[in-house]
Write a structure and sequence with these properties.
Elements (H helix, E strand, L loop, with lengths): L7 H6 L53 E5 L7 E2 L5 E5 L8 H6 L1 E5 L5 E5 L4 E6 L7 E7 L13 E7 L3 E6 L4 E6 L2 E9 L6 E2 L2 E2 L6 E4 L2 E9 L15 E9 L6 E4 L17 E3 L1 H10 L5 E5 L18 H5 L5
Parallel strand pairs: 2-8, 9-19, 17-18
Antiparallel strand pairs: 1-3, 3-6, 4-7, 5-6, 7-8, 9-10, 10-11, 11-18, 12-13, 14-19, 15-16, 16-17
Organism: Nonomuraea maritima
Pathway: Cell wall biogenesis; peptidoglycan biosynthesis
GO cellular component, one term: extracellular region
């Protein structure tokens, strides 16, 4: 089943849209000044009092910026998965030539360190991803030393501590119709599933196919309303119309893919792909997966011809490490 998007027109325009969508609303550029040439002396200068050459320095332009949002939430509110990104949104645009300076005041310190890098995805948003997954069961401290930016008068430094929980890595095989969930490296459960059936092509993309690639869980709802409105089908008399309340829905992309309880049709679970793009699971399996899910958990899907885009939700692991680092300003 697919939930309706918050903005229907945007989903229809997005060629990579999946059938699931919810009806309800997750070397630096130098700041040094240019040097001017020496000030010429007058011919009347005496030999015992030579005039020293003077330098004129242009003023450093300020960078006035604050943080509008940090994702995910703090260690006092949630635990996150080993794939989680740090998403920082500023209150105003940061010019390209000043981004390296801004990056230089953003620090990430982990109890169990791994290499990481920032990537700018817009003029207001920068994202931190690690080279390999975070080590589980640790704390990570993010600090933005905004007061160190030139001319950022009155800015307060900002910090947030994250808690990395259990390593949950799920592998969905759409050809074998199974989802195997590994917790801290050990197989915890194998769940029969049914993935996207295919057969609905929009703008050259089969939107009924589940996307193959490395997804991250982005949020979850105990009950999600899923409708056919993302297709433009709102007439209950239309054969393609549906509106269902689906339990145990865990979102894994922006284009509407979820792992959720199958709305009936249990005979297909573990046998064939019959969904509109989501991963349907048994009631027991879906509830268990919902219960253990943390934002930033890894869900690897394989076996379909439709590739997950790196910027579809939190799918940043679709980029190689070298590709990811190219988005940094440093």
């Amino acid at each position: 089943m697919k939930p309706a998007p918050r903005i229907l027109s945007a989903l229809l325009a997005f060629v990579t849209v999946t059938a699931c969508a919810t009806e309800s609303p997750p070397a630096p550029v130098s700041a040094a000044a240019a040097q001017a040439g020496p000030t010429p002396t007058t011919p009347a200068v005496t030999q015992d009092a030579p005039e020293a050459a003077a330098e004129e320095v242009s003023p450093v332009k300020p960078i006035k910026v604050r943080i509008a949002d940090i994702t995910p939430m703090s260690d006092k509110t949630e635990k996150v998965g080993v794939g989680f990104p740090i998403i920082v949104t500023f209150d105003r645009a940061v010019r390209t030539r000043r981004r390296a300076e801004v990056e230089s005041v953003l620090e990430v310190q982990a109890q169990k360190p791994v290499e990481g890098a920032w990537r700018w995805v817009s003029d207001r948003k920068v994202i931190y991803r690690t080279k390999t997954y975070w080590k589980p069961h640790q704390k990570v401290l993010f600090t933005a030393r905004l007061s160190d930016l030139p001319g950022n008068t009155g800015a307060k430094d900002v910090s947030r501590r994250f808690a990395v929980g259990t390593s949950n890595i799920s592998v969905v095989d759409t050809r074998r119709h199974t989802m195997k969930v590994y917790r801290d490296g050990k197989l915890a459960k194998s769940i029969p599933i049914s993935a996207g059936s295919g057969g609905m092509v929009r703008n050259g993309v089969d939107v009924y196919l589940t996307t193959s690639g490395t997804h991250l869980t982005m949020g979850k709802k105990a009950v999600e309303t899923m409708t056919s409105s993302w297709l433009g089908v709102t007439d209950p008399k239309d054969p393609l119309y549906y509106k269902l309340e689906i339990p145990w829905a865990v979102r894994i992309s922006d284009s509407g893919e979820y792992v959720h309880e199958s709305a009936g049709y249990y005979q297909f679970l573990g046998r064939s792909n019959q969904s509109h793009g989501c991963v349907r699971a048994t009631p027991e399996g879906a509830k268990w997966f919902y219960t253990i899910s943390q934002r930033g958990d890894v869900v690897k899907i394989k076996g379909t011809k439709r590739k997950l885009e790196w910027n579809n939700g939190w799918s940043y692991w679709q980029l190689s490490w070298n590709q990811w680092k190219k988005g940094s300003a440093r």
